[in-house]
UniProtKB/TrEMBL annotation:
One of its GO terms (cellular component) is DNA replication factor A complex. One of its GO terms (biological process) is DNA replication. Keywords: Nucleus. It holds the Pfam family Rep_fac-A_3. It is found in: Nucleus. It comes from the Eukaryota. This is Nucleic acid-binding, OB-fold,Replication factor A protein 3. GO terms for molecular function: damaged DNA binding; single-stranded DNA binding. Belongs to the replication factor A protein 3 family.
Amino acid sequence: MESVVLPTRAFVNGSYLQKFIDKPVTFIGSVLKVASDSKSITLQSTDDQVVTVHFHEPIDSSLDGWVEVHGYAKSKGTIGGESYYNLPSSITNDFEKQQFNETVALIYSLSNPLK
């Protein structure tokens, strides 16, 4: 059996996106707008920044609420999206944005003992 190496994605919010240009990221945001061609979405990050995610193919489902995006950071406010997951309200009803932002900040303030 052939092994497959998957890239490690960094969890980021709007503030940390620019530190991961051309690297794989996981981003959580609230849907503000889906483009008319369904190939991009505009999200509000957990730290209230606006981020646009561009996909190669049109989105094939209705998106609303909170979305988790996997892709590559392209600029301060842009992600090249590879996949997305519409998070159910049963998970996000009590989602604490501030706690998520604090967790992201904590992750990048600690040194990585595995390096």
